[in-house]
Design a protein that fits this description.
Strand order of the largest sheet: 3-2-1-4-5-6-7
CATH topology: Rossmann fold
Distance between the termini: 56 Å
CATH architecture: 3-Layer(aba) Sandwich
CATH superfamily: NAD(P)-binding Rossmann-like Domain
Helix content: 40-55%
Strand content: 5-15%
Largest sheet: 7 strands, parallel
Number of helices: 7
CATH class: Alpha Beta
Structural class: alpha/beta
Number of domains: 1
Radius of gyration: 19 Å
Shape: globular
Length: 261
C-alpha cells in the first residue's frame, strides 16, 4: 500500500555523499525536511557537523559522518559504520578545467578516482546492503549537463559524468528486481563554489541570457527538490532516467531574431 503522502520520507534513512556545501548540502537539507534520517557525508567534517546541528535545531534528524570518496580506506570505514540505508545520493565530485591536451596523468587520475571510482565503489557497497536487506531502495546520482551536450575544457570531468549516467541505466535494469530505483540528475548552469570564478565576468551572464530559455543561473536549491522526489515513494515507477535541471539549456535555443510587430 502506498503511503498517504507519496513524497514523505518518514521512516527512511538517507545518505548524501558530498553534503558539506552546494548541491549536496541543499539535497541533504531537503531530505531531512522531508522526514528522512539524513546522514551527511563529506571529508569536510566541521561544516558538515554545523549543517547537521542546524537541521536538528529545526527538529529534523541529521548526523555527520566523515567520508573521503577518493580514498578506498575511508569508503570502507564509512560503509562499515552505516546503518541500514534506504536512499543513497551521490553528489561528491570535483572538476579541473583544461584544454584536453594539457591534462596531466595526475589530474586525470585524480578526477577519475574522485568522480568515478569512488562513487562506483560506494554504490557497490551500499547497494549490496540494500539487496541483502530486501526492502528496496533508491540511488540518485548527480551527473552533469555535459552528459547531454558537448562542452569545452571539461573533457575528463565529462568522461566521469557520462560513465555515471551509463551506470545509472545499467543498474536500473540490474536492480529493478530488487525494487531499487536508480536515477541520475543532470544539473545545468548551477552557481556553486566549483564554478563561481568562471561566472564572475559579465560576458558569461550576457551569453547565458542570449542562449538559454531561463536567462538566470540556477541555485543548488533548484536541484534539491528533484533529488528529494526521486528518493520518495512517489518515484517508485521511475528508474533509469537522466533528468536535466538546466533552465532549458539542453532543449532550447534563443535567437536574436524577432518577428515584426
Amino acid at each position: 500500500m502506498k503511503p498517504a503522502n507519496p513524497f514523505s520520507l518518514n521512516g527512511k534513512t538517507a545518505v548524501v555523499a558530498g553534503a558539506s556545501r552546494g548541491i549536496g548540502q541543499a539535497i541533504a537539507e531537503g531530505l531531512a525536511r522531508a522526514g528522512a534520517r539524513t546522514i551527511l557525508a563529506s571529508r569536510s567534517l566541521t561544516p558538515l557537523a554545523a549543517i547537521a546541528r542546524n537541521l536538528r535545531g529545526e527538529g529534523f534528524q541529521a548526523e555527520a559522518m566523515e567520508l573521503d570518496v577518493s580514498s578506498r580506506e575511508s569508503r570502507e570505514s564509512f560503509c562499515g559504520e552505516l546503518p541500514d540505508v534506504d536512499v543513497l545520493v551521490n553528489v561528491a565530485g570535483t572538476n579541473i578545467r583544461r584544454n584536453f591536451i594539457d591534462y596531466t596523468p595526475e589530474e586525470y587520475g585524480s578526477l577519475m578516482q574522485t568522480n568515478l571510482t569512488g562513487i562506483v565503489e560506494l554504490t557497490q557497497a551500499v547497494g549490496r546492503k540494500m539487496i541483502e536487506r530486501g526492502q528496496g531502495g533508491k540511488v540518485v546520482t548527480i551527473g552533469s549537463l555535459s552528459c547531454l551536450m558537448g562542452m569545452p575544457y571539461i573533457s575528463v570531468y565529462t568522461m566521469t559524468k557520462c560513465a555515471l549516467a551509463g551506470l545509472t541505466r545499467a543498474l536500473a535494469a540490474e536492480w529493478g528486481k530488487f525494487n531499487i530505483q536508480v536515477n541520475c540528475i543532470a544539473p545545468g548552469f548551477i552557481l556553486t563554489e566549483l564554478n563561481r570564478k568562471m561566472w564572475e565576468p559579465q560576458e558569461m551572464h550576457d551569453w547565458l541570457k542570449a542562449t538559454e530559455a531561463n536567462p538566470n543561473l540556477g541555485r543548488p536549491e533548484d536541484v534539491a527538490p528533484l533529488a528529494v522526489f526521486l528518493s520518495s515513494p512517489g518515484a517508485d515507477y521511475i528508474t533509469g532516467q537522466l533528468i536535466a535541471v538546466d533552465g532549458g539549456a539542453s532543449t532550447t535555443q534563443i535567437w536574436p531574431f524577432a518577428p515584426p510587430a
